[in-house]
Amino acid sequence: MIGLHKELFAVLLTGTTLAFSGNTASAMDQKNENQIEFKIQKEMTEKILHLKIKGMHCQSGCANGIDTMLKEQKGIIKSETSFDKSSSIIEYDPKQISEEKILSLIKDRGFEVEVVTEKGASVNG
User: Fold this and answer.
1) Residue range 87-104: average pLDDT?
2) Is the pLDDT of residue 113 over 90?
3) Are residues 64 and 36 in the same domain?
4) 40 and 20 assigned to the same domain
5) Are residues 35 and 63 located together in one domain of the fold?
6) Which UniProt keywords apply (predicted)?
7) More confident of the two residues 64 and 27
8) Which H or E run includes 105?
9) What span, in angstroms and rounded, lies between the C-alpha atoms of 79 and 76?
10) Boundaries of domain holding 99
11) N- or C-end of the chain: fewer Cβ atoms within 10 A?
12) pLDDT of 14 over the 80 cut
């Protein structure tokens, strides 16, 4: 009798799990679709700026200082500046901050800045 109760409980539990998992799967699929759609829309509006920066003397003060300053600006999503490579990669929302403003902010700190095109050529900024 106890064995029968265990089997019945297992069947009920499995049926309940299947019933819930069907609904959960649909909800999760919808959530994933919404996240993917949001990510695509977000990526369509964000831009990445590749810069060559001259005049940095160290990572901790110069490069990290640029990153800290930029991250405080509205519209800057990500900033990674490297003293060793004399470069910076900045992800930003052009609806909130312009490329010109980013270049100006870095120049105001005393650095020379050049925009690097996708082909690797520098464009004076």
Assistant:
1) 96
2) yes
3) no
4) yes
5) no
6) Metal-binding
7) 64
8) helix 99-108
9) 7
10) 46-124
11) N
12) no
